[in-house]
User: What shape does this take?
Amino acid sequence: MKICLSYAVILITILLISSVQLAAQEKQELFFADPTIYIENGQYYLTGTGGTGKEASGFSILVSSDLKTWTPPAGAEDPVYKILTEGDRAFGTRGFWAPQLFKAESTYYLTYTADEQTVLAQSTAILGPYTQKEIAPIDGTEKNIDSYIFKDDDGTYYLYHVRFGGGNYLWVAEFDLEKGKIKPETLRKCFDQTEPWEATPAYESAPIMEGPTVIKLANKYYLFYSANHFRNIDYAVGYAVADSPYGPWVKQKDSPILHRSIVGENGSGHGDLFEGLDGHLYYVYHVHFDQQQVGPRRTRIVPITKQWDAEAGLYKFRVKGNEVIKPVRQLVAD
Assistant: This one.
């Protein structure tokens, strides 16, 4: 009887350990860099620069209803659900970075970087696949990365992106969505590196400003961007304001609004601003793996507040650094 009891205790212990291990395996932290979130029909859709393996050769997507727990789309047989794959009727052989999802009329669009070129692909469904009728970059005349397409109130589209030349600088041009091309005569540089926070000595590099997101509030344009090299622990996010999509841009003195001193993790930046299902603003971004290692970069989401500054005639933004969400991927359905 004692022997049977001992076996039962051992068996229960093994089962408990196994269940704990399984639970740990069922949920994993997200490792999307340069992330973006699109919202439709009560669901969040997240994609970004993938880590390794299948995720690195295109773009995969995850779905959530609460920003905390993410799963592959319903019915997906593979936990890595690809919306764009290298070689599948879309430009690019390497370096699939920094995607953005948006919708115009009944068509979904995915703009992204590949082979150090900005690219636009399209689909009839949010989950893709995203392909091109003509396999080509947006502007192949020179290297350009980190695309963000903004639609103004009058229906005009603008492509914000990064061009090289003594560093990485933000540029804007009017964008013809139907042709998938910029209007070259409208191309303008947004601004130079001017602020101390944009170039800290923690990691020496040429000037770098990247990862743009643009919104419009009360007839003013707000350009959120990251600065410093992504390997710098001081990689951070600030914003500038203008009366036109082309600028001139006035950098705000309360920048950076997202920095390791605020959220407690190194390399915090390059993401996307969005309004959640609860009506609140959020910023999705990445951070370094830990204090010693840059990659794979971890995904984070943080609430943002906006407050009207009557004297300045514009909104001021602040990150709620004590409310950072650390999203997880659930591998096994409940």
About this structure: Residues 2-26 form the longest helix (25 residues). Confidence is low (pLDDT under 50) at residues 8-24. Residues 31-330 form a domain with the Tachylectin-2; Chain A fold (CATH 2.115.10.20).
